[in-house]
Amino acid sequence: MSAGKTLNRTIARPDPALVEAFRGLPSANVDDCMERMAAVGPRLLPMNKAPLLGTAFTVRVPQGDNLMVHKAMDLARPGDVLVIDAGGCMNRSILGGLMTQYCRARGLAGIVVDGCVRDRDELAEMDFPVYACGTSPNGPYKNGPGELNVPVRIGEQAVRPGDILLGDADGLIVIPPEEAAALAAAARRVAEKERAILDGILRRQQYPRPWVDEKLAGLGYENR
Q1: Number of neighbouring beta carbons within 10 Å of residue 182
Q2: Which pTM does this prediction carry?
Q3: What is the rounded (10 degree) CA torsion for 161, 148, 51, 23?
Q4: Which domains does the chain carry?
Q5: 166-212: per-residue pLDDT in tens?
């Protein structure tokens, strides 16, 4: 994978209140409101149990190189998520414990690496979300070039600077800010509906789903 030499220091960030509207919402509920197509895919996994929510500050680097990630750490603002397109490289880690601790200390909201990280045990104990494709003890090159705040691809999704990232144990989804207000409201309705269904299951052992028989009848099954 090649990377250019674009360095955009600033991005258009959504209103923090718009980002916070997704706080506590399961990624699955939001994804259900996005035609179930917003996930970055199963390749990127959480390195710990900390939930992720923030604004994408994107980085594109050559495979196995983290020069531009160092610059990004200094330019990103509190609430930003470093979203690093490393081309899915599995041979070298892009960052580890020290760089993660620095991002945490600066108030960033998380790190997403389409590639490898290291210091897995340290990351696993942190209350700071990190997602990656895997781990490798091999350290990175620092030769560059690289790009900041350009559209990147993470797993199966394109990510733009300023997009909203939401992640939990199920995985990561990408939320366009221009759709965020309506999606947050819709996802909260889904979450409330699921809580009511769960209450019926636990209290009455009931889970009404008339649509199942309707679908089967439409496929030609007889109700005997």
Answers
A1: 10
A2: 0.94
A3: -30
A4: 16-177 (3.50.30.40), 184-218 (no CATH)
A5: 999 999 999 999 999 999 999 999 999 999 999 999 999 999 999 99
